[in-house]
């Protein structure tokens, strides 16, 4: 197939010639053909979004998975009612502020938009690109344009017409050259079908700008990790490995100086390097592609995909890449780098991060700890350590038996139910028991905390009372509705409802933990598995915020 090349970089040239080229591109789109079009973010592979056969060709040419939905491009908010249903007022607020621009809004779709475009979802992503050439083409075509990035699936996105020609030239009808992309990373994708709105993909519009206009925005777990098997993507770029050059990528996160030193330590003779401009001299003799100055994320975004693509023409066997922090455009740049690496990330900063988890029994601390293990954290379960010491320390047993005679059987086993009945009914007795436990337990816990490098989590119902909170970078209250806690304790421990309520009533209430801890993780989930997923996302964001604070300070 011959691909027609329309050069519209000089928009000050002959007006009639420009209009003719725009009309020709629009005609191809109306008739079901594919045309690569420029936007401020990346080049898009355009087709009539209302024509299933044309949309199907996008998937064919790109090699794109069929369950990966497309974004439709329009010329303004006046097009929304044609293709979207149940449009919330906030959509128009966002459109007035950020359109044309790199913001995609996920909305309920009208039946007019085919399943081929939405991957069978009842929602559709809509945006208005900030590029005069493409806006003119959409107006002339008179239809919304589905336009994912114009690269073959999995490769780095195209930020120039030359990139498009390399990837899909000869397989599409036309390429419109509108010059290099000003932003350099794809649009920000915001789901407006939920409350609060949810960030599905960070992009050219920083989430901080959105939150300044509409308030808090949740962040989908796919921003920080790959979707798991069976999870369905709600927007482009959520599920699959993207933006990947041929050589494997390792992202090195952390303060710039620390990440540069870590790359220098790890690199081999055939390593390729993506680094901030300031650190280029460290990697003399290697294939190096500067990402831009440390402080200029706009330049970093513009250079990112070109740097990844350029390595494919070299003999490098691996790519080591510095990563900006998550503020502003850094969240989008880091997300693209991590996706290129399949989320293979090395944290250069070696500071230990200690999280203290506390809360009443049955709140879900076990599932929260499992989530921290998923993140590679070392976990210290204070209850387990208590039983370990109790079993191995005759001195500990004697101290308890002196205050609570008869709670040990002749063979030395603790009758937990008998001890519980005594201490749960009288607060002064519980305080006496805790004083004994803290005396033996806290020194051992301190020793174990110091032995863990990186992320460490301490689970202790008496975290605050024992003084262990002083060792923590952040304390987290794990809370849950009382009735859910009762059911969980009954099922877990095989006890009666009456005894379960006695245990809960003998402990501090959630308000106590909320008032004393740095943050709260509430568990109203229907299953431990669902809570574990929610907790993982919570801890990913919390740990990153602590690391960012340590880098700054």
Describe this structure in words.
The structure is a single chain. Strand 10 and strand 11 form a beta hairpin. The termini are far apart. It contains 21 helices and 22 strands. Helix 12 crosses helix 21 and helix 15 packs across helix 16. It is elongated, with a radius of gyration of 28 Å. It is an alpha/beta fold and 553 residues long. The strands form 3 sheets. Strands 1, 2, 3, 4, 5, 6, 7, 8, 9, 10, 11 and 12 form a 12-stranded mixed beta sheet that branches. The mean pLDDT is 89. The longest helix is centred in the last third of the chain and has 25 residues, at 528-552.
Describe what is shown at a glance.
The protein is α/β, with parallel strands linked by helices. 41% of the residues lie in helices and 17% in strands.
Layout of SSEs?
Blueprint: E1 4-7, H1 15-30, E2 35-37, E3 44-48, H2 52-62, E4 71-73, H3 80-83, E5 84-85, H4 89-98, E6 103-109, H5 115-118, E7 123-127, H6 132-141, E8 145-146, H7 161-168, E9 174-177, E10 188-191, E11 198-201, H8 207-214, E12 218-219, E13 249-253, H9 256-266, E14 271-276, E15 287-292, H10 297-310, E16 318-322, H11 330-340, E17 345-347, E18 353-358, H12 365-374, E19 378-381, H13 382-392, H14 394-403, H15 416-425, H16 427-450, E20 455-459, H17 463-466, E21 474-479, H18 482-493, H19 497-505, H20 510-516, E22 519-522, H21 528-552
Parallel strand pairs: 1-9, 2-9, 4-7, 6-10, 11-12, 13-16, 13-17, 14-15, 14-16, 18-20, 18-21, 19-20, 21-22
Antiparallel strand pairs: 2-3, 3-8, 4-8, 5-6, 6-7, 10-11
Helix pairs in contact: 1-6, 10-11, 12-21, 13-16, 14-16, 15-16, 18-19
